[in-house]
C-alpha cells in the first residue's frame, strides 16, 4: 500500500471513485471487472477493519437476541407458559423485526443514517434490561419487541456498509458479516446455560456490558460510514436494470422464488432454534443445561456454514450454493426424527452447515438482481427471514400443543424439499476463474 501511495498520492476524486466502485453492484457486461483491481489497494486496510467491526457487533447483537429463546425453558417454568405462548413470544420479537426492516432499508436507500447502527444497539440494550426484570408475560412481550426493533434498525444499514467495504468480493463480505451473527446466536444458549440458568432471570442484565461494547464499535463504524457519505463514496445509487436486464416480471418472479426458499429454510430453523431443547428434554430426558449445550452444537454448525457460503458463491456462482444448501440438507432432516440421542445431535451438524451456507448467496444474488437497492434488499430478506422464524415458532408451538413435539420434527423434515424451486432461478453471473 505504501508503494502505491509514494510519489503519487491518490487525490480525493480518485479515491472517491475507487470506493464508489466497491459499493456499486455489477450491472453491466464482464468488461467492467477491472474496477476491482483499481479499488483493492484503497479498500484493503480500512475495509478489513470495518468488516471486522460489523462482524463483532453482529455477534454481540445476535448473542443478546439469542438469550430469549435460550431461556425459554426457564421462562416456561417461572411463568407457567404453554408452547403456544412461547411461540407468541418468539412471534412478537420476529415480526417486530421483520415488518420494520424493509421500511428501514427503503428509507436508508434514499437517506443513509450512519449512526442508526449504534441507535439500534441501544434499543436492544433496553429490551435486555426489561427482560431481566419483567414480572409479567406482557412485559416479556414488550422486551421481545424492543429487541426486535433494535434488530430492525441494525441489519439493513449494516448489510449496506458490509457491501461498501467488500472490495468487490460481495459474497465474502456477507459471509464475514453474517458469521458474526450466527456465532452470537450460538454463544447465547451456551452463556445462558452457565450464567442465566444457575443465577436466574435477573442475571440477563449482566449482558448489558455486551450491548454497550456493541454501541461503541458501531459508533466507530458509523464515523467511517459518515466520512464516506461526506466524500460521496457511499452516496445511494439509482437502481439500474434489474438482474442484468432481465424483464421486470422475471425479476419479480425470481424474488418470489428466493423468498419461498427463505421460508423453507427459516421455518425449519425455527423448529430447531426454538424447540430443540424441549425435543431433547421430552424425548431423551436430558437436563436443561445439557439441552442448551446440544443446541450450541447446532448453532455453531450454522456459524461455520455461513463462512463457506459466501466465498463458494463468489467462486462458483450463487445458484450453485443455493441449490446445494437447501436441497442437499433433505437426507439429514428426514433421518433426524428417527435417530437416537447421539445421532440426533450429530445430524444437526450437517443440517446447520448446509442450511446456513444459503443466506449469504441468496442475499448477494438478490442484491445483483436489484442493483442500487442494497438497503431494501437487506431489510426485505433479513426481515422476511425473521418473520418466517417467528411465524414458524408460533405455528409449530400450536402444533406441538395439539399433537406432540416429536410430530413437529417429523413434519418439518420435509420442508427442505421446497428447495427444488431453485431450478427456476436464472443464472446471473459466471463463476470466477481460479
TrEMBL record:
- What CDD domains does the record tag this protein with? MFS_FsR
Alphabetized SUPFAM superfamilies for the sequence: MFS general substrate transporter (SSF103473)
Query: Matching InterPro entries, A to Z?
Result: MFS, MFS_dom, MFS_trans_sf
Keywords annotated in UniProt? Membrane, Transmembrane, Transmembrane helix
Q: Which GO terms describe its molecular function?
A: transmembrane transporter activity
Transmembrane ranges, per UniProt, are 38-59, 79-100, 112-131, 137-155, 176-197, 203-225, 251-281, 293-313, 320-336, 342-364, 376-395, 407-425
The superkingdom of the source organism is Bacteria
An example Gene Ontology cellular component term from the record? plasma membrane
Q: Do the record's keywords include Cytoplasm?
A: no
**Major facilitator superfamily (MFS) profile domain boundaries:** 50-431
Tell me the protein's name.
Fosmidomycin resistance protein
Q: Which organism is it from?
A: Methylobacterium aquaticum
Amino acid at each position: 500500500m505504501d508503494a502505491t501511495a509514494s510519489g503519487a498520492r491518490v487525490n480525493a476524486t480518485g479515491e472517491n471513485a475507487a470506493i464508489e466502485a466497491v459499493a456499486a453492484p455489477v450491472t453491466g457486461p464482464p468488461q467492467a471487472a477491472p474496477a476491482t483491481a483499481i479499488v483493492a489497494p484503497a479498500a484493503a486496510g480500512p475495509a478489513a477493519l470495518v468488516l471486522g467491526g460489523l462482524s463483532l457487533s453482529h455477534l454481540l447483537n445476535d448473542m443478546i437476541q439469542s438469550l430469549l429463546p435460550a431461556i425459554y425453558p426457564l421462562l416456561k417454568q417461572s411463568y407457567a407458559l404453554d408452547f403456544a405462548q412461547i411461540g407468541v413470544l418468539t412471534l412478537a420479537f420476529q415480526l417486530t423485526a421483520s415488518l420494520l426492516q424493509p421500511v428501514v432499508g427503503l428509507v436508508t436507500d434514499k437517506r443513509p443514517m450512519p449512526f442508526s447502527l449504534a441507535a439500534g444497539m441501544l434499543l436492544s440494550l433496553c429490551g435486555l434490561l426489561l427482560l431481566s426484570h419483567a414480572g409479567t408475560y406482557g412485559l416479556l412481550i414488550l422486551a421481545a419487541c424492543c429487541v426486535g426493533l433494535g434488530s430492525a434498525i441494525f441489519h439493513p444499514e449494516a448489510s449496506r456498509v458490509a457491501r461498501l467495504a467488500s472490495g468487490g468480493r460481495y459474497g465474502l463480505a456477507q459471509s464475514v458479516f453474517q458469521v458474526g451473527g450466527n456465532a452470537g446466536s450460538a454463544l447465547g444458549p451456551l452463556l445462558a446455560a452457565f450464567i442465566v440458568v444457575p443465577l436466574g432471570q435477573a442475571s440477563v442484565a449482566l449482558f448489558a456490558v455486551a450491548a454497550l461494547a456493541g454501541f461503541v464499535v458501531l459508533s466507530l463504524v458509523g464515523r467511517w460510514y459518515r466520512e464516506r457519505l461526506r466524500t460521496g463514496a457511499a452516496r445511494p445509487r439509482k437502481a439500474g436494470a434489474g438482474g442484468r436486464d432481465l424483464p421486470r416480471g422475471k425479476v419479480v418472479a425470481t424474488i418470489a422464488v428466493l423468498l419461498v426458499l427463505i421460508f423453507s429454510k427459516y421455518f425449519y430453523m425455527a423448529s430447531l432454534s426454538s424447540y430443540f431443547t424441549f425435543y431433547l428434554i421430552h424425548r431423551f430426558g436430558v437436563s436443561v443445561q445439557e439441552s442448551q449445550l446440544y443446541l450450541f452444537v447446532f448453532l455453531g454448525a450454522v456459524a461455520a456454514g455461513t463462512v463457506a457460503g459466501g466465498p463458494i458463491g463468489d467462486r462458483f456462482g450463487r445458484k450453485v450454493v443455493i441449490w446445494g444448501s437447501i436441497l442437499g440438507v433433505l437426507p439429514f432432516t428426514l433421518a433426524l426424527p428417527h435417530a437416537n440421542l447421539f445421532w440426533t445431535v450429530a445430524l444437526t451438524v450437517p443440517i446447520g452447515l448446509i442450511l446456513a451456507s444459503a443466506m449469504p448467496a441468496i442475499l448477494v444474488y438478490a442484491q445483483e438482481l436489484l442493483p442500487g437497492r442494497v438497503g431494501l434488499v437487506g431489510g426485505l430478506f433479513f426481515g422476511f427471514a425473521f418473520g418466517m422464524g417467528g411465524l414458524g415458532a408460533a405455528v409449530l408451538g400450536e402444533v406441538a400443543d395439539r399433537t406432540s413435539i416429536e410430530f413437529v420434527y417429523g413434519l418439518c423434515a420435509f420442508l427442505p424439499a421446497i428447495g427444488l424451486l431453485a431450478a427456476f432461478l436464472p443464472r446471473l453471473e459466471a463463476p470466477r476463474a481460479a
